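From the shared-data thread, chain only:
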Amino acid sequence: MALKLMKGCEAIAEAAIQAGCRYFFGYPITPQNDIPEYMSLRLPQVGGCFLQAESELAAINMVYGAGGAGARVMTSSSSPGISLKQEGISTCCAAEIPCVIVNMMRGGPGLGNIQASQGDYFQAVKGGGHGDYHLVVFAPSSIQETCNLMQKAFDTADKYRTPVMILADGLIGQMMEPVELKMNPNPEMPEKPWAAQGYDPKGERPRAVLNSLYIETEDLDVLINRLHERYAEIEKNEKMVECYHTEGAEFILCAYGTVARVCKAAVRILEEQGVKVGLVRPITLWPFPTETVHDTIAQESVKGCLTVEMSDGQMYEDIRLAVNGCKPCEFMGKAGSIIPTAEEIAERILKMREA
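Structure, as tokens:
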């Protein structure tokens, strides 16, 4: 497989197609517009369907329909558009519809701006819609990793019958990097006996019921208990985290997405000055790698940790819960789509060292 220079959004779209996605429903919003544009060209070439819906609400409900029929289906948007999809996302979770949702985060709240941000962490991880549910949330830090996670996202969605979100900031969507894509003209699809693919009155294929309305309280309780048993299985099996130069470190940086790349540059700057610093990078934001974060920061050599985000400190809450007071925790954040620099991060660690 040869390396190819690709823009992030276009690479993500191609990776989805190679993972077996054949249906895309979306609505334009910056900075993810290159995804639907690319899908509109490529999906007809592979026998798929691209449809620009009349709104974000329509798009997510089209996803419900295609996913309920057993297809690998995807939608993408950016922060305010994801907000509009929240009722449909909650409905997909309740009806156990596997699908993939891409959020290229931009500044907020409200319409905010069109630059990169990480302000949608709470929305993605804590449940932006109503009710007791979770999304599996992947947070890539490069275009190659995003492509790799796209295959895993579709596989995970099918395995657990749940929506999966790729949460990336707009930088990843708009930058260009060399990527290696596994070209798979005939991806293998899992059997979906639960899907609405035709009713056999002889009983060989039961009638599919994909529903999120439960009038009887006991029936809703059964659904929620079933979902949470599934979430417990996901928490047990699907956590992903990168630990970078953490063994014997004096301080630990915590970051995800593009900011984690900046933190790695800060690690190198500090190491040149004789200060050993590591990075913990959650790749799954839900399920959150709580045990790894705690154990890494609880090392005897560690004096404290610094969480760095392009937000007002959303992941920082989960870091503090994971650390549980075993070491001092500090936060460094930039809001409004301002990207912290490696030099600023290194300077903050040196101040913590002097304190």
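The chain has 13 helices and 14 strands.
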